[in-house]
């Protein structure tokens, strides 16, 4: 009896630890969007530098996720998770200590790399630690944690920046990761089991390099050209992404035919439904990311709201997502496409309503912003 109770206790603490990591990562990223005006003023950054501070982190995270997952399968999910978590804490300190935009960008890139080691292990640890019924519950909790983080992130960022504790301003949004990460690390060392895949797979580092280069060739001209216009060199760099991605695809097929392990299996690259899903995801997350970035700038610089007041405008969006996210999870298998289309229509209507209020309003009130934000949140939850 004691053994069963200890096992359940260990499972609960294990899942709690990985949820803490997921929560910390999302809170950090949602807080950074609100902190952008403060960062820009403090470090005297250019527009392109600000974009790189956001994009550099996302690029490092996106490219490293697949490698991070493979490393956990090969060398132990607990080991890689704790390495990623400790790296996240260290790079958060470096972000807070940055004295210029170059130092902050470098720290944000390494923070993204640390997240790429940490985040994939969450799903691997859940699968290895729980049975199928418990996994379903854990994934539901994971969705709830992300929704909660979407609320806490802007609110916490607004409070910390406005309070300006010890004169640190935006730096406190990174320092808050330190105690949270340390607690998660100590619990992880004690309770997480170091599981791994029975069949170790070689990691395609060349494929990862090609994939990262292709994304960089797209991002670089898009970011830099906002400062320098669009010279011919920008179009040349942008065009280089095409042969690089083709090389990545050819290498993946070659490795598959040689019975080796490509970064992305050939079956996925040849699956039209999967590729269309990726395209839809790309458009959706690109749009949402740009929206919140520009909304934060508008609320703080355009309407002279404080960071705290701006976070209160964003709050209804997060509340709406919590209300409908449970419906989205519950009926995903039965009516996933209908929920996706319905949610997208709600988001589009909310954005049109919001644009109408902002475009025709000289002094847009809180409710003129909050109500369409709430409708958009209901849509994104679906």
Radius of gyration: 22 Å
Low-confidence stretches: none
Cα separation of the termini: 41 Å
Q: What percent of residues are in strands? A: under 5%
What's the number of helices?
A: 14
Helix amount: over 70%
**H/E element string?**
HHHHHHHHHHHHHH
Shape: globular
Q: Which class do the helix and strand fractions yield?
A: mainly alpha
Mean pLDDT: 84
> Mind summarizing the main beta sheet?
none
The beta-strand count equals 0
Quick structural overview:
The chain is mainly alpha-helical and 382 residues long. The protein has helices at residues 2-43, 47-75, 77-97, 101-129, 132-163, 172-175, 177-191, 205-228, 232-257, 266-269, 272-302, 307-330, 332-360, 366-381.
Draw up the topology in text.
Blueprint: H1 2-43, H2 47-75, H3 77-97, H4 101-129, H5 132-163, H6 172-175, H7 177-191, H8 205-228, H9 232-257, H10 266-269, H11 272-302, H12 307-330, H13 332-360, H14 366-381
Helix pairs in contact: 1-4, 1-5, 1-7, 1-11, 2-3, 2-4, 2-8, 3-4, 3-7, 5-12, 8-9, 12-13, 12-14, 13-14
């Amino acid at each position: 009896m004691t053994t069963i109770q200890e096992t359940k206790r260990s499972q609960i603490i294990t899942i709690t630890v990985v949820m803490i990591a997921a929560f910390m990562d999302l809170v950090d990223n949602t807080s950074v969007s609100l902190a952008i005006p403060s960062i820009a003023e403090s470090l005297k950054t250019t527009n392109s530098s600000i974009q790189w501070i956001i994009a550099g982190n996302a690029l490092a995270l996106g490219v490293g996720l697949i490698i991070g997952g493979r490393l956990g399968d090969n060398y132990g999910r607990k080991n890689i998770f704790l390495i990623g978590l400790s790296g996240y804490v260290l790079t958060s300190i470096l972000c807070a200590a940055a004295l210029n935009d170059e130092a902050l960008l470098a720290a944000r890139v390494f923070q993204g790399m640390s997240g790429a080691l940490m985040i994939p292990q969450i799903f691997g640890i859940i699968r290895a630690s729980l049975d199928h019924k418990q996994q379903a519950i854990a994934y539901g909790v994971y969705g709830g944690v992300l929704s909660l983080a979407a609320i806490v992130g802007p609110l916490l960022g607004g409070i910390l920046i406005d309070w300006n504790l010890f004169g640190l301003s935006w730096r406190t949004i990174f320092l808050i990761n330190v105690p949270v990460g340390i607690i998660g690390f100590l619990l992880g060392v004690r309770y997480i089991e170091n599981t791994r895949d029975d069949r170790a797979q070689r990691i395609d580092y060349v494929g990862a390099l090609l994939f990262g280069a292709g994304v960089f060739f797209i991002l670089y001209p898009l970011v830099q050209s906002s400062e320098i216009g669009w010279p011919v060199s920008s179009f040349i760099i942008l065009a280089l992404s095409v042969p690089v991605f083709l090389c990545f695809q050819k290498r993946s097929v070659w490795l598959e035919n040689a019975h080796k392990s490509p970064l992305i299996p050939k079956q996925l690259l040849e699956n039209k439904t999967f590729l269309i899903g990726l395209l839809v995801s790309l458009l959706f997350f690109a749009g949402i990311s740009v929206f919140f970035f520009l909304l934060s700038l508008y609320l703080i610089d355009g309407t002279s709201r404080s960071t705290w007041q701006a976070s209160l405008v964003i709050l209804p969006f997060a509340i709406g997502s919590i209300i409908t996210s449970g419906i989205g999870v519950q009926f995903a298998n039965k009516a996933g496409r209908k929920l996706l289309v319905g949610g997208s229509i709600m988001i589009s209507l909310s954005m049109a309503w919001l644009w109408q209020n902002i475009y025709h309003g000289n002094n847009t009130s809180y409710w003129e912003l909050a109500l369409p934000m709430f409708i958009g949140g209901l849509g994104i939850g679906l």
